[in-house]
Amino acid sequence: MKMKCILCAAGALAMCTATAFANPAKESEKTEFNRHWFMQLQGGASYTLGEGSFGKLVSPAAALSAGYQFSPVWGLRFGLSGWQSKGAWVSPENVYQYKYLQGNVEATLDLANLFGRFNPVRTVNPYLFAGVGVNGAFDNDEANALNDKGYTLGNIWSGSKAFVAGRLGAGVNFRLSDCVLLGVEVNTNMLSDKYNSKKAGNLDWQFNALAGLTFRFGKNHKKPQPAAVVAAPVQTTPPAEKPRTPAVQEAAPVAAEKPAVAEKPAPLREDIFFRIGSAQVRDAEKAKIAALAEYLKANPDANVEVTGYADAVTGSNAFNLKISRQRAESVAAALKAAGIAAGRIRVNGKGDTVQPFPGVEKNRVSICIAK
């Protein structure tokens, strides 16, 4: 019955997997996956398979990991795990403990996204992982003390010892927010027969049950980029030429010519670009504002419309609406400082609801049209 707890955990994971696949993925059609880094902090219990009773071979365990999610399905995780392991001599029963610290590298597989559509708001997300590790075991004094008493542990070691480990595991994450997940995980390390100091002629198996939090650095999704909106060129129609009157033999009264209608100047457009998260006009963009001010001074009847935008990848909708307005107001303030009356400037902010350019960086912009 030593494997009873492990089988129960696997059954619970299977139930969570079925629940995850049953969740609707309505949001998946509206969003795209975004690559991101993450960090995990876990704690729990470790059990090294041995001849003693299950409860006496359970030890504390902890793990700290960091990883990168390359796609909705595949990720790579690096981590440190360890604390304590235990072994036992059966007759008479003696339990001994030792310490270990293990470095791991693993490939992760998201089952919900593998068998269903990518859904960034799915509550239950089961996963599998496999990899390798290097286990550094130390502080084996209790086993050595038993061996010195005549128990004859076949694979006794002292000081410190390094072992290569194969790793397999499964877990499930429960979404708390876009950046925080609560998770549980079970895994096994397959180690050399020398790991627990007893000679058995087969691998030593170490099982871990852990729970903890996963923190995402950045969102795991982004809004799809709409097609670029290209401003149509503004055309002006030249005044029609006055038809010429054919020459006549006799002198005819000369009609007074109508005064020429002044041609309306072509509109001027300038795109003022900003850094990420900023509404401050950069020095490199000030020449464009100077050109707008010169145009408005040369054309006293012209006005300017300044519309601010934010990219759809960075920040929330509310933040993007706020910063888009601030970007437009920064340009307006610069025009006023250049001598343009406030009544000739109209300011608007679109947030991330409209993306006038393809890509990300160029949508941190204020588009100014003077006419």
Q: If strands are numbered along the chain, what order do they take across the biggest sheet?
A: 2-3-4-5-6-7-8-9
Question: Which structural class should the secondary elements be placed in?
Answer: alpha+beta
- What is the CATH architecture term of the largest domain? Beta Barrel
- The count of domains is 2
Helix coverage percent:
10-25%
How far is the first residue's CA from the last residue's CA?
83 Å
Strand content: 35-45%
Q: In total, how many beta strands?
A: 14
Order of helices and strands: HEEEEEHEHEEEEEHEHEE
CATH topology tier name of the largest domain: Porin
Using the CA coordinates, give the radius of gyration.
Answer: 36 Å
CATH class of the largest domain: Mainly Beta
Low-confidence stretches: 14-29
The total count of helices amounts to 5
Query: Mean pLDDT, nearest integer?
Result: 85
Biggest β-sheet description: 8 strands, antiparallel, barrel
Morphology:
rod-shaped
Summarize the structure.
This protein has 371 residues and is α+β, with helices and mostly antiparallel strands.
Detailed description of the structure:
The chain is α+β, with helices and mostly antiparallel strands and 371 residues long. It folds into two domains: 4-222, Porin (Beta Barrel); 268-370, OmpA-like domain (60s Ribosomal Protein L30, Chain: A, 2-Layer Sandwich), CATH 3.30.1330. It contains five helices and 14 strands. The protein has helices at 4-22, 111-115, 141-151, 286-298, 317-337, and strands at 32-33, 36-48, 58-69, 74-89, 94-110, 124-138, 160-175, 180-191, 204-217, 221-222, 268-273, 304-308, 345-349, 365-370. The chain has an eight-stranded antiparallel beta barrel with strand order 2-3-4-5-6-7-8-9. Helix 5 (317-337) links the parallel strand 12 and strand 13 (345-349). It is rod-shaped and about 125 Å long. The termini are far apart. Residues 14-29 have low confidence and may be disordered.
